[in-house]
Every structure is written in structure tokens, then in C-alpha cells.
Amino acid sequence: MSFKCPLCMRIFSQRFAYTQHAQKCLKNVEVEVEEDDDNNDSEKYSSEMDTRSNLSSEYENDKVEVNDDNDVQNMSFDSIGSAISEMSLEDSNFENILDSSEEPEIFEEPKNLNTKTCTEFPNDAYKDLMLLVTKYKINNKGGNEIIRFFNKHSNHTESPLPKNIEQGRAFMNNMKFSNLEFSKVLITKHEDKDYFLYYQNLIQCIKNILTVPDITQNFALSYENYEYNRESIYSEQNTGKWWKTTQESLLTGSKLLSIILYSDATTTDTLGKSQLHSIYITLGNIPIWRCNKQDAKQLLGYLPILEAANKDLVRDTFHKSLRHLLEPIILLKDGIDLFINNENTWFYPRVSTIIADWPEAASFCLVYKSSNSNLPCHSCLVKRENLANIDLSVNDVILRTHDEMRKHFENDTQRSVCIESVHNFFWDLPNINIYLATVPDRMHHLDLGLFHYQIIFTCDILKSQHVNVMIFVIDNLYDENNNEVDNFVNNDDLTKLYEYWNEMYILSRYEEFSESDLEKFNDAIHRWARMFVKAFKFVSPSNLKLPKLHSWVYHIIDSIRSYGAINGYTTETYESLHKYFVKIPYRISNKKDVEPQLLRTIKRQAISIRMSQHSVNPAKTPRTCKFSARLFEFSLQDANTFFNEKKDSVDNKMRTGFARFISCLDSYLDLLDGFTIIGETRINIYGSVTLENGAIMCATNRYHNKVWFSDIAISMDSEESNDYISDKGLYYGQALLLAEVLTDPPLNLALIQCYRVYTWCRSHSTLI
After folding, report:
1. pTM for the complete prediction?
2. What is the dihedral of CA 105, 106, 110, 114, to 10 degrees?
3. Whole-angstrom distance, CA of residue 351 vs CA of residue 606
């Protein structure tokens, strides 16, 4: 591979040599341009400027917008020319087009090179190319081949595309959007090295989330005292006790804006030698099912990772960074107005929960991280010797509070409660107890924690009985203690352990909990935990002194009462964010001073998403649904005869649908003014339908030889709502028939049997 300078036409065999030459050559061009200007040689000046423009456009200045704060330093991320990617003189094939790591971006740029900022692409072709390259992560080489192909076969006298992909990326980097700009601030200096926080303004992050389409539908604005049969129901965060007490502390007329944070350090390379510490934000006002989608979350920033022997300095750096990120909560004493559902609403932002693994939670709480400390739980003051005790009383589980921990810190007795000698920033935040807000996370507590231990300890027991198998079946693997092992574990007990685990885990995934559900869940947790301790206490090297075991047994129920269902604060839906905000951007960087490069990549991705949302193809009419698996076809006038013929060969649910079909269809047609159906109209009955949102609804007794009638939730208008018992505006039912009435236009209908909420008694069928 060789590289040709577009200025002096010299050819270089190595990229590095060419890069150094390009910088010098550009300076020479600038000098020549000045001389030509003095001599008023307009023709030569124009020629040289065109050449300089061609090259300098490939050296566009990349910037991360920063504040004018005294503590904030302006950043200019230089990019040396992309003339590098005028590519090889010989190699023009498409190999490794998708290998983004092959050609990292380079960030050294000649000084005093002006850049132009804008909010729109020069033309649609330019835009479509860059959106394509960004969406599919096409590298420079592959993108340049696309440009060459387009220019070769298009009829344009002047190409509408950038000269190369690097120029296009530089153009996107310099597009000006106030809500896509990041800042950096110096947090600390250690051993002559500066440690910066790269971040986005907290309020701007919130506004970005609120601009996502449909994100404010069913947006919670107040506490909901959700009850059934005189029992409190805990589901969304605004049904929990924290929301109630926090809302009562706000000024009359204002609303609570619940902030959920997720923080975690992740490796960026396969060897695990490099790390980035990212922190994300979402809102507890958003319904859980919607909040768990990726676009409901925003990257708040990259925290500095300080490697120092002085661990207090590391902790202080972490909390200084958090203070800088969350300080707007303290400064906004009068709250903030946000545009929600077409009207301005007065909010007070408050941090509700922090989702993190156990070491990260300890960093937020500034308690000792070691599980060998005297008081290893970050939520309470339980002693280490009681971590495996399943029968502790309320007096044995004393919760940590800000007032008590601050008092120990100020009196220099922090060691007695196992907290670090660093001021905890969260003591200064209103309406939060950081020791409870760092909620138990199901994925780290169960999936990666206790279940991992359970598998390891089970293997140890089976090995002691000389049972060498992969663990797929537990029961009947051994009968007696043939090897005379001390502390023998009966195989039946081991089987019950996994049965109890499954019961507990299924309950943990409930979308809502009544008080009786919580009692049932608590009993299931203790039943499993007792068997866990009985089976593994003598197998575990620490005698099961596991902080996660204690936290799950004694704190998860209170977390549900305070913050709603567990599904609202689990890291399962957050882990994938590392892929999009850390790992992929890191792979296309040059691996040096990576944070600014990552932020530029993220900015381009955000621009691509925004522009794609605004691009609409008017020629394409979206299909609201797609039927499949046609079961029956008949004419309307023969419907009753057809139903009588088929009623003995179908499921009871479909038989019910047949019996109600004509009457419900008549009721539905009465709602359509002037719409009539003739007797010869054909009707198709299908087994499944794919809805516009991608969900599949089924109504068939022959789905892989099994019955499948989908349970659904329906949102009805206010005129119909009085006929049903609602669950916060939703009504539940089951699909009985999926029908296509072949009129012009066709009617796509589903016969739904609606149920009363919770009792699941049949109400009546309706056609929607």
C-alpha cells in the first residue's frame, strides 16, 4: 500500500512518513498563498487556494464544546488529515469494509485552521451517505470506495459527496447542536497528570430524553396510591413510599422528576488493560417497560479513573466528579420548567435510585468494600458474623442514615461504622438516603452472584460423591453418603434448593407486588435461603458470609416498597449501553486520549439517529399489521353454517369467538357511519398477526401443536372506559379470533374477550 500527496504528488510507502510530510507540505502551501496574495496573482492564488481547500477540508477541526467556567478548559481535538485515506494507489477492493478498527481517527491538526459549523448537511446525497456510514459503522476505506463508485457511475458534473469519508466525519463533528455538546472539567491532578471529567449537562440530558418520541406517554407526574382489596400495590416507581414522602416535601403545585443513575467501569480492550468509567441517566417518571429501552437512557459522562496508592484520593476524585454532575439539583432551588405533553410543567429533580454492582455501590456510599470488614453491608450495620443468619430480628438490622454516618465522620469515629474518611457528596443532596438508594440489583445479586455460588457449591458436593456430570439434572444423582463425607447433603435437599430458587426467581420478576405478594415473596426468599445455608455452609470457604446473600434476604422487600417493582432497577437493560457508548466507539479510536474521540463518535451516532427520524418516505404507506397462518375462509352470509361445521374441531376459546362473532361485528359496524357489508363479502380467519410495533398476537389451537391465545392489554378512549374496570388506563383480555374482512378498504379486526382486573372473571367480548 502506498500514499500519494495531493500537493506535491510525492509517493510514500508508509502511512507515518506520509502523515509527517503532509503537515509540512500544508505549511508550504500557506506560505505560497500569502506570497501570491501580495503579488495579486489572482489566477495562481485561486489555484493554490483550491488545492489548499481540498487538503484542509480533510483536516477539519474536531471540537468538544465546553463551558466558559474558570474550572473548565477549552478543548480542541486536532485531526490530521484525512488525505491519508485517499487510500492506496493499488488497493481498491472492498475487503474489511466493516472492520472499523482498521483505520482509527487521527487527532492532530495544523493550527489556525478555520472550521465552519452548521446544523444541516450540504445536500441529501451527502446526508444519506454519512448516515449510512455511521449507522453500519463502515470504515474509512469502505466509505471511500462507496464515494468512488458513486462518482464513477453518477451523471453529476460535480460530486455532491465529500471528497472522502474523513471529510464527512469532520463535517459531522462540527455540526452545531446545543443538546449534543460535551464539556470537560479538571477534577484533580496527581503525579503531574491531569484527570478530567467528560460530561454532558444534567438538565440537557433530561431534555434529550424527553425529546424521544412517545417517551412522555403515561409520564408519571404524581404519587399514585395504588390499592386493590385494601392492599397497597407496588409497581411503577410513583407507587412507592419514596415518591410519596419526596412529593410531600416539595412546594405545592410542583412535580417530582425522578432521576435514576447507572454507573459502572468496563474494559475497552480484549486484554482488559484499559478501562472507562461511564455513568448513565434515565427518569423514574417513565413507565418501566419504556424506561428499559436503550433510547430512554442518556450518557451523562465518563468519570476519571485515578490509579493511586492513596485510596482516599481515588474516592475523593469519584465524589468530586459526582458533585460536578449532580450539582444542578442543589442549585435549582426554584425547580425547573420542562415541556411535557404540550405544556410546561414545574419540576424539582431528585435522585431516586442508583443502579450498580456491589463494589460500585460501596463507592457511592463510601463504606468499606471488603466483605471481610466488620460491617460489610452498605445499607445497614449488620455484623459480618451474621451475614448468613436468616433469622435476624428487626433490632439486628439497623439501617444506615445520613445523619448518623455524618455524625461519625465529623466526630472522627468513622472506623466504628466502617465508612471511609472522605466526605460523602450525597449527604448534601435532598430527599435521598444513599445507603438505601443503591438498591439490590437482581442481575448482580442473583444471576452473577448467588446463583453462581450455588452452581459452584453444587459441583463441589457432587464431586465429593464422585458424580462427574454437567449440571442439567439434579435429582436422583446419588442416594446415600457412600463416601462417608462430613456434613453430607442429601440429594433431595439439593433438588429442593433449585425448586425454591426457581419459585423465588419467578416472583422477583413480577411487574407489580401487592402486600400479600410481598409476603409470599419474602417467604420464598427465606425458604430458599435456609436451604442454601443448610446445603452449602460447610462447603463455602467463608461459611457463606456473603454480603449479597444478606442484602437480598433483608433489603429487597423494603426496596420494592420504596421504589416499586424490581424490574425498574436492574442492570440487565443497562449493560448493553457499554457496547454503544464505550466499546464500539473505542474500537474506531486511535486508543490515545480516547474520551474526546468517543464523544465525537457518539455525537455522530446521535446526529444519524436524529436525521433518520426526520427522514420520511412519503411514497411508502406503512402497514399497521400483517396477518399470517390463514386458518379459515368463508362468506359473511354462510358464517353461521360454517361455524356450526367447525365448532367441534376447534378450541373452546375459538368456539366462543365463533358464537360471538356476528353480534360483535354488528355492534362494531354500528359505530362506523355509512359503512355496510354485503352478504357475499369474504372473511379470512388467521392464526397470528404481527402488529406495527413488531409484537405478535396469536389466536390458534395449532401453533406447533399447542394452543396459543395471546393475553393483551388495551388502551381505550374515555367514552368506552366507563364500561370496564381499568388498571391505570389499561384493560386486559385475551384474543379469540383474528379476522380480515375483505371490504374496500379491508377491515383488520381482533375479537377480544376482556377481563376484570385481578379477578380475571369474564366480562364480555368486544371487537376492536
Report:
1. 0.69
2. 20
3. 25
